[in-house]
């Protein structure tokens, strides 16, 4: 039975990820229910529900962070979708990734840009 923080986190996750939220968490639950629980409760139940930043800003920050990591392309794609769902434009997503060149270098930023391009193509198909 889900607790209140989990329910709150799933509600927030659905706002950001759309209908893919449930599928995303179910995939994680198959291998680790505890990991899925933490994935919902901590970022989405606790952080994303704070009222200091709006959802669009939170997602653009997440795109920036995942870009700088340079190895999180699957998660980056999820959050590019989420940024668009939360009102960011494609141009804003690309601009955030472009700015990250100064902090992570061209290889990581290029990987992020190509990930965003994949998301845009998927949405256009």
Features:
mainly alpha, globular, AhpD-like, 2 domains, single chain, 125 residues
**Average pLDDT, to the nearest integer?**
95
Question: Which fold name corresponds to the CATH topology of the largest domain?
Answer: AhpD-like
The total tally of domains equals 2
Tell me about the biggest sheet?
none
User: In percent, how much strand structure appears in the residues?
Assistant: under 5%
Give me the Rg, rounded: 15 Å
Which overall shape is indicated by the principal axes computed on the Cα atoms? globular
Instruction: Summarize the amount of helix as a percent range.
Output: over 70%
Task: Give the helices and strands as they follow along the chain.
Answer: HHHHHHHH
Distance between the termini: 38 Å
Name of the CATH superfamily of the largest domain: AhpD-like
Describe this entry's structure for a reader.
The chain has 8 helices and no strands. With 125 residues, the chain is mostly helical. It has 2 domains: 1-52, no CATH class; 54-125, AhpD-like. Helix 2 (20-31) crosses helix 3 (33-47). The protein is globular. It starts with a helix and ends with a helix.
Write the layout of secondary structure elements.
Blueprint: H1 4-17, H2 20-31, H3 33-47, H4 55-69, H5 73-85, H6 90-99, H7 101-104, H8 106-124
Helix pairs in contact: 1-3, 2-3, 4-5, 4-6, 4-8, 5-8, 6-8
Write a brief caption for the model:
The chain is an all-alpha fold and 125 residues long. It contains eight helices and no strands.
